[in-house]
Design a protein that fits this description.
globular; 24% helix; alpha+beta; 38% strand; single chain; seven-stranded antiparallel sheet
């Protein structure tokens, strides 16, 4: 289901409105380039890359949205499926479920990832529901 969501949204990107911006560096981080794709004014995908990076293996985060909510979030080593702001599946980069995470870690990761997505979307004036 994660793969299907990612593929369906990616297939429609050429018909969507793309917006780009760059966030200045914070502390010791690199500047981040953000690209958002909107369909009828609703965010469908967000890609955030360190300015020195080049693709998912180098600090890129991809987020796919359904109905304005985070549906799938992919980082370098992990992919997360969300439902109503909650992680329902945490996998490794090959989409194999992680068995080494407990509920406390899942809840902390949910908060961190959703807060980060909110901050990045705010750069475009977009708020999560």
């Amino acid at each position: 289901m994660m793969r299907q969501t990612m593929q369906q949204i990616d297939a429609g990107l050429p018909q969507m409105t793309e917006r780009d911006t760059t966030l200045p560096p914070v502390a010791d981080s690199q500047p981040r380039h953000l690209a958002a794709w909107l369909q009828d004014g609703v965010v469908r995908k967000l890609v955030v890359a360190d300015s020195g990076g080049n693709g998912p293996g180098s600090g890129e985060t991809d987020i796919w949205f359904l109905g304005g909510d985070v549906a799938v979030l992919q980082q370098v080593a992990d992919v997360y499926a969300f439902d109503a702001g909650r992680i329902v599946l945490w996998t490794d980069g090959t989409l194999q479920p992680r068995t080494d995470v407990d509920q406390q870690l899942v809840m902390a990761k949910e908060t961190q990832l959703i807060d980060t997505a909110r901050r990045w979307l705010a750069a475009f004036g977009i708020a999560l529901p």
